[in-house]
Design goal:
The chain is an all-alpha fold and 76 residues long. It is built from 3 helices and no strands.
């Protein structure tokens, strides 16, 4: 069972598609440039900013998990 979960996790991680994270207005303005370097920079910045809410929720979830595990061990 653990092997199956690991395989699904690896496939999920490595089988991702690139995503465009710009709003329609930002994309229209930035595509008018010929070089496109500003558009790539803005897109990367938006993707990096999206990471922090997931890290925050993951950290809170980890703390809750550890607290519940500690409380369960204290009850036994």
């Amino acid at each position: 069972m653990k092997k199956r979960i690991l395989i699904v996790l690896l496939i999920t991680i490595f089988a991702t598609l690139p995503a465009e994270s710009q709003c329609a207005m930002c994309r229209a303005v930035l595509e008018s440039e010929e070089s496109g370097t500003a558009a790539k920079g803005i897109n990367n910045g938006i993707v990096y900013l999206m990471i922090f809410p997931y890290l925050l929720i993951g950290g809170i979830g980890y703390v809750i998990y550890k607290m519940r595990k500690k409380a369960k061990l204290e009850d036994n």
